[in-house]
Structure formats: C-alpha cells, structure tokens
Amino acid sequence: MAKKILITCTDSMMKQFLEPHVIHLLKSGCTVDVACSEVLNRFSEVSKDLKGRVKLYKLSMQRSPFDRSNLKGYKEVKDIIDQGNYDIIWTNEPVMGMLTRLAARKARKRSAQVIYMAHGFHFYQGAPRKNWMVYYPIEKWMVRYTDKLITINKEDYQFAQKHFSCPVFHIHGIGANTEKYHPISLEEQRQRRKELGFDGPIILNVGELNPNKNQKTAILAFKEVLKQYPNAKLLIAGKGEERDALERLVSTEGLTGKVVFLGYTLELEKYMQICDAEISCSYREGMPLNVIEAMLCGKPVVASHNRGHDELVQGGMNGYLVGADHVEDYANRICEVIGSGQSFAKAAMQCAKLYTDQQVRNELTAILLEKEQK
C-alpha cells in the first residue's frame, strides 16, 4: 500500500541532502509533502526543483531552540499534520525534529509513524558542556514521541542504542551522488585545470561558511603550504555568515588571489575532480558528505578529528586526521599529499562505496517503508 509521507527540515537540508530521497520515495509510489523552514535563503530553490512533484509548505522555524518564531512554526506544522492524515512523518535536525514530534502526538495516536533522523547529535564525545546541558535532555525526553530514530554515524548509533528507549537504526550517511562524483583521467584533469585557469596544486575546502566549519584554520594552514608550493591555490566553496570575516583574514594574511571563494556552486564536482586534496577543519561533523564526494573522486582528505571524519578517514591510506586548530599539522599533511594523490585513490574510492546514494537510498527506504533491502 502506498504511503503518504510528510518530511520536515530546513531549506538547506532539503536542497543539499534530501531532494534525491524525496524523488526516490515518489518513484516508490508514495505521496510526499514537504514542510521547510528558510534559514539559508534557499526555499525558492527547493520550490523550483520540487514544483509539481510535492505539496510544499513554508515554516517559520529557526535553528536556535530559543528563537521566538519557533512557536509560530510549531503551530504551522501542527496544522499541517492534523489536516494531512499522514502515514509517516519524517523529521530532521534538532529544533525542527523536536517541534515536529511534539506537533505529531495526536497523529501517532491514530497510528502515524514518527521518524527522526539525527544528522549528528549536538552532544558527543568532546562536545561543549552547554551542548550536553541543552540538547541531550531534550533528545532524551523526545524519544517517547519517536517511533524510529535514524543515525548516520557509528558513534551516535552506539550512544542512542545504549541511552534511548526507542528503536534505533543506522545508515551510511545521506548518500553521495555517484553520477556527479567519480574520477576522471589525468588528461581530463589537465584540460579542465587549463580551462578554469589553474596551473598549480589545488586544495579544496567545502562547507557552509560558519564557525563550526572553521575555514580560518584552512586559510592559515594554506599560508604555510605556499612556502613549499608557491603556485598553489585554495578554493573555498560555500556561503554563510563568516564570508566577510574570512575575506578580511585572507587580505590581512596577504593571500589575495591565492585563496578563491567560489561561493555556492552547482558544479562542485568540477573542482572536486581536479583538486589535489580536500581539506576539512570542522569541530563537529555527523557524516560529512563533501568528504565522501572527494573520496568518490579518488582524492585524499586531510581532516580534523571528530566522529564523522574519524569514521571515514584512515590515516595514511585515504588521507590524514589532525587536530581542528593544528595549523602546522594541516600544512604538513597537505604538503605530503600534494603530488602523491594517486597513491590514495584506490583506498579512498573503496571506503566511499558504503556511502553512495544507491546504498543509502536502499537503507533509508527499508526503514521508512519497512521493506527488505535489495
């Protein structure tokens, strides 16, 4: 029997990660409604891409649990759920997940299943004390309104199994697009570099420009890399609140022209396929899609120690792990992988196989629709 599903998330979550899963559920015969809050001005993109495929609602919620607009957002999503007669309510992200699950209490009484996907708990080994004080008690309480909890990394899965009293599942991330992210030949790389105007080593950093992603460390480490590779370039892909501050840092450090801000790009694979290494300096990651995409392209990754990176990066095989603020260690490892990236390619691609779009779609569909995986 076809299911009627409501998915709630932020606009950025839908645009960056969930759209392929929406389309897959539609192809599986489900009816899908989507309710998004706008946090990164991407609702218009979501609306354009899903137009005619789903019923789309715009919510007033914000990421901060203390934002007053969340009360209005709660009422909005409750009205949608009460009138929608959904079989499955799939919610994502901490604040959205909490408010959606509270709003779905009546729906659960009439047998709707409420499923929460945790894209990386804000409480984790080494997390700030305030994260544990705020987010852990909330999540501990909210599991009573959760029929299934989906985690995307092993640390969160093991913790949830031990501490939360609801069925807990694990999937391998959110799924990387294998049609876009794959290796290209050395000749193709040379040609594309020429077309894009690059003639030296390329280091790529991908992610929303915010304090957690810690692009500051990438920039400072790259300054050290230039001492050994003066014709190298650091490409930073993404948009966010830290853009102005990072541009000032680039200027202050005398790196203008050496560090290139790509902004938000729909052609990230073009840069991923020609870079010498991907660098990620995040303090916190659930399961970083950009790292998986780099590995699918056969690229080594130099990344910070955290639960998401630690699960993916095997030191010396497909890249290296260093401390998030260890500028010198980053610089040394980047210099080490420049020019020797091909030696990491096989291990990188092998690791990424578990985290591909097809693999994750099968895992997720099995949980949502209670079907056996193929």
What does it look like?
This protein is an alpha/beta fold and 374 residues long. The protein has 2 domains: 4-175 and 357-369, Rossmann fold, CATH 3.40.50; 186-355, Glycogen Phosphorylase B (Rossmann fold, 3-Layer(aba) Sandwich). Helix content is 45%, strand content 17%. It is built from 16 helices and 13 strands. The strands form 2 sheets. The chain has a 7-stranded parallel beta sheet with strand order 3-2-1-4-5-6-7, with helices on both faces. A 6-stranded parallel beta sheet has the order 10-9-8-11-12-13, sandwiched between helices. Helix 1 (11-27) packs parallel to helix 2 and helix 12 crosses helix 15. The mean pLDDT is 94.
Give structural attributes.
globular, alpha/beta, seven-stranded parallel beta sheet, Rossmann fold, 16 helices, 374 residues
What is the number of beta strands?
13
Any idea what the shape is?
Answer: globular
Name of the level-1 CATH class of the largest domain: Alpha Beta
Q: Label the CATH architecture of the largest domain.
A: 3-Layer(aba) Sandwich
> Distance N terminus to C terminus?
19 Å
The total domain count is 2
**Global mean pLDDT:** 94
SS content category: alpha/beta
Helical segment count: 16
Low-confidence stretches: none
Helix content: 40-55%
Strand coverage percent: 15-25%
Supply Rg: 21 Å
Biggest sheet strand order reads: 3-2-1-4-5-6-7
**CATH structural fold name of the largest domain:** Rossmann fold
Main beta sheet strand tally, sense and closure: 7 strands, parallel
